[in-house]
Amino acid sequence: MVSSTEYGSHTWDLLLTVDHQHEGVEKEIPLQVTGDLHVGGLMLKLVEKIKIAQDWSDYAFWWEQKKCWLLKTHWTLDKCGVQADAKLIFTTQHKMLRLRLPNMKTVRLKVSFSSMVFKAVSDICKMLNIRRSEELSLLKQSEGTLKKKKKKDKNSKEPATEDILNLCNSPVSSGLPVNPGLYSKTMTPVYDPVSGSPASSTITWFSDGSSAEQNCNILALSHPTCSPEMLAEMYQPRTLADKAKLNAGWLDSSRSLMEQGVLEEDQLLLRFKYYTFFDLNPKYDAVRINQIYEQARWAILLEEIDCTEEEMLIFAALQAYHVSKLSLSSETQDSTCESEVDEVEAALSNLEVTLEGGNKSNILEDITDIPKLADYLKLVRPKKLALKAIKTYWFVFRDTSISYFKNKESAQGEPIEKLNLKGCEVVPDVNVAAKKFGIKLLIPVADGMNEVYLRCDNEDQYARWMAACVLASKGRTMADSSYQPEVQKILSFLQMKNWTMCSQAASEPENVDMKPECFVSPRYTKKFKSKQLTARILEAHQNVSQMSLVEAKLRFIQAWQSLPEFGLSYYIVRFKGSKKDDVLGVSYNRLIRIDMATGDPITTWRFSNMKQWNVNWEIRQVAIEFDQNVSIAFTCLSADCKIIHEYIGGYIFLSTRSKDHNETLDEELFHKLTGGQE
Predict the structure, then answer these.
(1) Which of 1-5, 177-181, 216-220 has the lowest average pLDDT?
(2) How big is the CA angle at 55 (ends 52 and 57), to the nearest 5 degrees?
(3) Does the pTM of the predicted model rise above 0.85?
(4) Which end of the chain has fewer beta carbons closer than 10 Å to its terminal beta carbon, N or C?
């Protein structure tokens, strides 16, 4: 027998492939190695044999068969498991990648193909000057969406070279460390809080070239919308199953691009994956605000999210004049004075974009005082044969429950019914023009969801009761500091819908230079003639005509957040014990089981009630335990179960953020919550 010492000292041949651009130099290099040679030593031997004078610092070994990087240079070949048949490629870790941003612009930049996607996205966002990179991720377009696109336009080509913003010379693209000062609170690039255009000193952050200002504008400002023809060619989901396809291609944040089959010069989508936009500030977030606005705009135009006709016209009005026209003229706008800046900051406080809730200037109220609402409302209960029973009762809202009585005088006795709203779904049912102010409550019960409709008499009553219902669904009461801001937010949105017709604009829509088809989804283009749409958009525009550019974008985002389906990512799943497929909606605070045929919610589970979740990687099943001995398990049919696992962990990770902490992310905690043990 041969001793282990003698066996380990034996050399063997290893054929290495070098990814270089030098002509006349062999790319396949054979080396004599031993199992105790460490990876760093193998690199040194290879570079010495190639004899090409260049910077090899960005190079590393990629193991083709196992689809992994050998980045631990102190590990030996034996420890790595490398044998003579291993196909190792010595290649650069940073490679060129094309990214389609939410505003449909394509940027070309150099990205680390060896770092985890979470880290790669962080570096990309530093390059693009987007704070809070944890809210974004990279998405591969699913085959279903691409096939439909190709069927509609077989002659479509890649975007022309001039349409691609090339950022390959930036520090991050070159593989160099980014200046940490870029994200410090004192050195973050500053933007005009009214117009969103970059301050002159900010331009130097992007590059030293003459195109720096243009690059800033492409990322931070909106540009003219696409043509109706281009809109018609893009993928538009028609069903919940179609919407599920949109979320199937999220990359695994705990693995590298190369490990997930991404190649150099491939195109990926950079999108906001998590719909919790933390600490939005126009002074520092012009790019981020614009890209969120663009993602919202395209989601509405392509009908990825449903909205009413009234809401569509509000979105069209905000796009048509404020965002498109003001963006074009923003370069000529004068610098704003301090008072204008203060007005915008006051507006931001009212819009609650910082998501902190509450007014800091409020005097602390008596904590023993429990707020309540009491008023006459109409109760609408769906009955068989499509009939509805509508009755007026005296309603009392206290804590997180609604009780109703026959009349005000009987309110001291036992209620007819008491509804606990904690964990329920709250859906607005509003048509301002028709004076319809309804609240649809889907309350979880043992065998599904109990539907209750409340009808209010006016906007003010609706705003107060709706805000109370929204907070109660999250387990919060009207004593919470976010109650009054929620009321104001609802009233603000209703005010935008409550427009009055401008006779001049309505009577002469042909005098207005406008293509209404560019601002509404194809469904409404088919429903109305062009002149009708123009008149209705101008009508809706009366309530938003005094807004600044940034405020218009923020109002658009706020209106988007007010839609019932906002923030829901859909997946087709099969629940354990079920014989049919369902749709699972994943939101920032809950999971919703939805009937695939009707689109109706069946059950809701709140993250706040979740005790633990895990994945059985062998059978690809996600199992979740909630309070009160409630447990669910399901397999994902439209995507890898790792995507849903990461979504849940990601939202829990984002809920731990605080403005008091440094902006550096706890990357280890993110991977602990989302990585799994596959």
Answers:
(1) 177-181
(2) 125
(3) no
(4) N
